[in-house]
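Fresh eyes needed here. I'd like your take on this protein's tokenised backbone:
***
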Amino acid sequence: MMKESDPPWKPTFIVKPDGGCQGDGIYLIKDPSDIRLAGNLQSRPAVVQEYISKPLLIDKLKFDIRLYVLLKSLEPLEIYIAKDGLSRFCTEPYQEPTLKNLHQVFMHLTNYSLNIHSGNFIHSDNVNTGSKRTFSSVLYRLSSKGVDIKKLWSDIISLVIKTVIALTPELKVYYQSDIPAGKPGPTCFQVGQEFLCKGFSVGFQSH
């Protein structure tokens, strides 16, 4: 339908198998018919998204941002967000996706478990350099380029709140099935890792 309304549109898609982690099974395609199915969509569903072909780069590298959010209570809703986080960098200079470079995971995927195997992976104790850096160092770089960091943080907090609110009804079902009424609530928490880079997702559990 998009092609019919906009013939010059030539997207790239990123395929992310359900239940995967650490970059396992993620790949890029130019044509939806190129999706590789392990079994069928019923046995292992996949999320297919339009790939952002012009991402924000630092040092010519694609990167992501991982933030840490703690959901302390559902009723009343009480959310905390850490002031710092982690940024993971690709290890090959970014180029817009083509049929020749779709398979180059070190260029397109930021997963640490993948890039650690690259010969270009940089181990560094300096928070401002290397293939893993602090979120605050990224904010400093963005600020030096004129980005309004206060507005950025405000937008991030807004996304966190809206995402948690959207998940709250389902979370309440899980919570009530695990902790019946009258029993004490969680005494410890598993802090989820959030991904933010032109998109946003939230994941966390409480025990």
The longest strand covers residues 61-73.
